[in-house]
Every structure is written in structure tokens, then in C-alpha cells.
């Protein structure tokens, strides 16, 4: 756990005076709620309504965030970090959101979910190089991350055969978002680590304010701004779905920032992976999609990776030590033969 002496609150709920397991459950519950709603809304808008405007939807979402933060009473006078801290963070954040949402025009939702599920591996690798962190992880955590990646590959190959909405362009877009997410989580953790007075609200507010203008150039250059504006003007109910999604995602965003501040980027990445697995299953249940044996194998490997990550490091070391002692106490073949000869002489 991180920043044990720093007071943390989540929507008025004090986290600092609660046991670690309660902190984890509260933050994870807020995250699961926000992003499960987000997942259903995203698939409904992209796959059912055929509105593929990732940059524009991120733009609308940002204004909803600012409105919610304003209602919470946050002002710039409460900031503890300079604006320049959030410039790089915001560029990565908005790029990740835009590529993630935009990839749904080229990938079906389960394929996108599985790509994002591998985030834990680049998060762990990149954490070793981010200034202020320089993290090192035990070998079993890398193994769990590799299991996730293998599960992704198997699932994605199966999904490419059963889904008509699968394109190499979508793979490139979601891969770019994956790298940005890995960088983002570690930088956020570094900010919380180097300045424990940073609040989740400040980070989300500043990242959004700085990031919103960055969305305008790609929207204008690609023509998405005008296409999305005209399409949503013809179907204004889409804004209702987007606002509802943004409110739920806001809850998830603040919750995940709490997880990063308290437990670190790698643990948070594993929680987000578990959420993606649940969202994936809901996607197949709600939208009635075919599930093959390859899908099941991929999901099984992902579950194994998650379970292995949840095993405490001291337990892994304990079992490894016990196994090593067993190996060291196994007699060699020559020793066995000598024992047999001695028995015969007795």
C-alpha cells in the first residue's frame, strides 16, 4: 500500500481510517460500477447505433467531467502541482481515450477488451524506467502478466474468426492506446508518490482541462468534428447516452485514481483486467455472441494470470523455498545404490 500517512477520500468516504481490505473493496467497487456501465454504453453506441466518433465522444465526456468536478467545489486554488505537470499527462490521456474509443469502429468490443487486458505487462515493464518509481516486481507477477498476454492472443484469434468487425487498423489503434495507458498509470503513480498531497479530483480536473484543446486538431483534420456534430444533431438522444456514460465513467476514474494512489499502478492494472473480463462476459450475455472453445481457453489463461497475481509474494517465496528444500533432500542415484548395498550386508 502507498501513502499510508496521507488522508484519502472517495466521494466523501474516508479511506485512510479504514483497513486496507476495505479501502481496496470500496475503490474497486466504484471502479467496477463506473466502467461496467461505461462498457455497456460504449458497445451500444458503437455497435448498435453505429456512431464511431471516438475523439468527439471523449470531448463531450471531458465537459461532463468538468461539470461534475465543479459541483464538488474544486477550484484551481486547491492545486498542489504546477500546470506543466499535467501537460504530458493530458496528452497521453486524451490520446488513449480517443484511440480506445475510435478502435471500436474497426474492432468488436470483446477484442478491444482483451487487448486492453494486457496493460499490466507494459505497466510493469515501464514502471522500471519512470523517474520516481524504478519499480521491480517478483517473477510470479511477470508470469501472471504473460499468461494474460497468451490468453489475449488465443482469444483474439478466435474472435477474428467469429466476428466480422476485426481489422488490422483497429489492432494498431488499440496497441497505441495500450502503450499510452501503461505510461499514464506509472506517471500518475509517480505524481502521487512524489507529492502525496495530490488529490484524485485535482489530477482528473487538470488532465481534462489541459487535454480538451488537444482533441480539437485531430477532430478538425479528420473531419470527425463536423460529422459527429451533424449525426448527433439528427439523433440528440445519443447525448443522453453519452452523458450517462460520462457520469458513470467519472465514478470509475476517481476510483481508479484512488487505487493508484493507495496500491500502485501494477495492482490497479490487475483490477482493471478483472473488470474487463467481467465486462467481456456481460457483452456475450447481453448481446448474445457465439463463444467457442478457443474463447474459453483464452479466458481460462487470463483467469489463471489474475489468480497468480493475487497470491501474496511471501506465499510464493514460501512454496518456492519448500520446493527447493525437497529437491535438495532428494538422494542421488549413487546414494540410493550404496544404501541398497549396505542393506544387503546387514
Biggest sheet strand line-up = 1-2
Main sheet, how many strands, which sense, barrel?
2 strands, antiparallel
Structural class: mainly alpha
Tally of DSSP β-strands: 2
Round the Cα radius of gyration to an integer and report it: 24 Å
Poorly predicted residue ranges: 319-324, 336-346
- Specify the number of helices: 14
Roughly how many Å apart are the termini?
Answer: 61 Å
Order of helices and strands: EEHHHHHHHHHHHHHH
Residues in β-strands, percent: under 5%
Assembly type of the chains comes to single chain
Q: Please tell me the overall pLDDT.
A: 75
Shape: globular
> Helical content, roughly?
over 70%
Could you give a quick summary of the protein structure above?
The chain has 346 residues and is mainly α.
